[in-house]
Amino acid sequence: MAAVATGMGPIGVKSHLAPFLPGHAVTPVMGMLEQHGAVSAAPYGSASILVITWMYIKMMGDKGLRDATFNAILNANYIAKRLGEHYPVLYTGKNGTVAHECIIDIRPLKAESGISEEDIAKRLMDFGFHAPTMSFPVAGTLMIEPTESENLEELDRFCDSMIQIRKEISKVQAGEWPLEDNPLVNAPHTADSLLDIEWTHAYSRKEAAYPLNWIKARKYWPPLAVSTTSTVTATYSANAHQLIATKINFSNY
Question: What's the domain range around 172?
């Protein structure tokens, strides 16, 4: 439930950053005080991205672009409306609507339950969904961007999954499941982990693998367990960002 935003265009910086801009070994960039290594194969980026955009616009036409925009906004508002009863929705307009994406705020839930946006993102794999954009543009949130391509059945499957996850968080809040042992913090659940002879978790194997009945007919089995997925990466990333923040005086930018 997230679109991939591919950018193409000039990037401007202040003059004190000019010496550090990337260069190109084959085609030197004019005006550079000193040449640095490249960040892309072409000196000024990939022009093929512009061709993809042009082809999309030409094939869609005026009516197609209007219809796609309408459906993308409608889909995002449908999700915001269904999930708004279970999660706080950020940045709504005066009529309570959103644009082509909706951002749900996990920070209050994390403060109350200890369950984070990362736990929800991992748990979504057990439902067969790749997680939406996490902690962007606001830390501690999930940004859901269904675009115009998802039908109502798929939107409802996603919303039902998110509502079920909210019910699971409520069980943690109520003390029915301990914070250190519940389907969210242990997600995703691989087929191998569910075949262990001894099952010592506070929840059942069924609750781990098939939290909703429709999952049985279209089950996706995550290939990696929690110990090898995003927990280590997220911790490393957070520490790296903290280290960078302590070394940079942001008042200069």
Answer: 74-234
Half-sphere exposure of 60 (CA within 13 A, CB side): 15
Q: 103 forms bridges with which residues in the sheet?
A: 90, 143
pLDDT digits (tens, 9 = 90+) for 5-29: 555 666 778 888 877 888 787 877 7
Percent of the chain residues past pLDDT 90, beyond the cut? 66
Q: Which of 189, 174, 203, 202 is nearest to 114 (CA)?
A: 174
Count of domains in the chain?
1
Q: What is the CATH number of the domain that holds 183?
A: 3.90.1150.10
Picking from 168, 171, 166, 103, the residue whose alpha carbon sits closest to that of residue 140 is 103
Is residue 125 situated within a structural domain?
yes
- Residue 33's pLDDT is 67
What tens digit of pLDDT does each residue of 80-106 get?
999 999 999 999 999 999 999 999 999
Domain assignment present for residue 29? The answer is no
3-state secondary structure of 205: helix
What is the b/e burial string over 175-193, where b = at least 16 CB atoms within 10 angstroms of the residue's CB?
eebeeeebbbbbbbbbeeb
User: How far is 60 from 85, CA to CA, in rounded Å?
Assistant: 35
B/e letters for 137-173, b = 16+ CB within 10 Å, e = fewer, are eeebbbbbbbbbebeeeebebbbebbbbbbebbbbbe
pTM score over 0.70: yes
Asked if 145 and 133 count as a contact pair (C-beta separation under 8 A), the reply is yes
